[in-house]
Amino acid sequence: MALLTIAQETCKGCGLCADVCPKQILALSREINSKGYHPIAVTDQSKCIGCAFCARMCPDAVIKVEKE
Amino acid sequence: MAVVYEKTGILTDTPLHYCPGCTHGIIHRLVAEAIDELGIQGKTIGIAPVGCAVFAYNYFNTDMMEAAHGRAPAVATGCKRVNPDNIVFTYQGDGDLASIGAAEITHAATRGENITVIFVNNAIYGMTGGQMAPTTLPGQVTTTSPYGRDPALCGYPIRVSEMLATLDGPAYIARCSVHDVKHIMDAKKCIKKAFETQIAKKGFSMVEVLSSCPTNWGMAPREALNWLEANMIPQYPLGVKKEVE
Ligand SMILES: Cc1ncc(C[n+]2csc(CCOP(=O)(O)OP(=O)(O)O)c2C)c(N)n1
Ligand code: SF4
Ligand code: SF4
Ligand code: SF4
Ligand SMILES: [Mg+2]
User: Are the Cβ atoms of B4 and A2 closer than 8 angstroms?
Assistant: First the structure.
């Protein structure tokens, strides 16, 4: 089991993380953060393999990845 | 649960001002992770450039200084010579390093100054609104080459890493990219190697990192990285250009 923690306030909605996710479980959310961006969100946490590709691709160090 | 990945404490909590998807942020993170893994935070001094990375001093949890446009290698030289036990790095864009600062980088390299240079090549002047840089590709449209860079008029792009690798002073020069996760991991290794070169007192080290400027290239972040891979890498081949054992 893996867990993502997303600092939604610092996310700029660039989508680079979603693009590299092998499970394609990242998508921009409908919410808008205080900078006016749609932050990224996990669509199905149970499918996450904790590979951290998303976190390594993120220019803004938004994502923390933990694994059991 | 075990942490697989989290932001290093070598980066401050100040949100980066870079545009969405700009890979300056990835390169900051790699430099910070290398400093973290080498345990050199307390003795590292970074020199910020003029360019989009002008505020780099707000983002690194190390001592930082700001240099005039292109002069970071000169500031780093003085800094390192007075404090030889400190680890000194510059972080410079291609306009900063290859245009107005071409003399400073060349002479710091040929003197074999024991500093580390992180050279962020995005083939454009990002901060000032997307003008042509010495590294702009033939045919590339910028605000000052609206019909595409014409080598007959503006000359050819400079391959800085290859050029500096012909000198006797440098100990380590490599070119990397950050367009996908594999290349990001490779770039991290090169940046760490460059710092290790300085720690071992071998002399000048530089890592050129091919980077995107989605805003001034007029592309979405992923599209920009695809463009980088397809167009910049053929012009600027990746790899280690010089390594002194
Ligand atoms: C002495 C001087 N000349 C010109 C400028 C204007 N200027 C600011 S940033 C810049 C170029 C930045 O391009 P680059 O180094 O490639 O950095 P980027 O923004 O692309 O990361 C220029 C010409 C300046 N600030 N100071
Ligand atoms: S850790 Fe891997 S699988 Fe999980 S969201 Fe990130 S990229 Fe996708
Ligand atoms: S890469 Fe980072 S900033 Fe971009 S959408 Fe993903 S989490 Fe947000
Ligand atoms: S202008 Fe270009 S280089 Fe500067 S922050 Fe924006 S995308 Fe990055
Ligand atoms: Mg530039």
Answer: yes
The complex's ipTM works out to 0.97
Who's near B6: CB < 8 A, 6+ residues apart? A55, A64, A65
Amino acid letter, residue A4: L
Residue found by looking up tokens 């149970």 in the block? A46
Q: How far apart are CA B96 and CA B88, in angstroms?
A: 18
B219 CB within 8 Å of a chain A CB: no
Is residue B141, in this structure, part of any structural domain at all?
Answer: yes
Look at A14 and B15 and tell me if their CB atoms are within 8 Å: no
Chain B environment of A56 (Cβ under 8 Å): 5, 181, 184-185
Q: Which domain holds residue A24?
A: 2-67
Which of these, B133, B152, B156, B151, lies nearest to B143 by C-alpha position?
B133
Domain assignment of residue B2, yes or no:
no
User: How many domains in chain A?
Assistant: 1
pLDDT digits (tens, 9 = 90+) for B43-95: 999 999 999 999 999 999 999 999 999 999 999 999 999 999 999 999 999 99
Burial letters B169-207, b for 16+ CB under 10 A, else e: bbbbbbbbbbbbbebbebbbebbbbbbebbeeebbbbbb
Q: What is the CATH number of the domain that holds A47?
A: 3.30.70.20
CA B52 to chain centroid, in Å, comes to 12
pTM of the predicted model, to two decimals? 0.98
Residue B69 lies in a domain: yes
Give the range of the structural domain holding residue B165, as residue numbers without chain letter. Answer: 24-243
- From the list B26, B52, B183, B212, the residue with the least C-alpha distance to A61 is B26
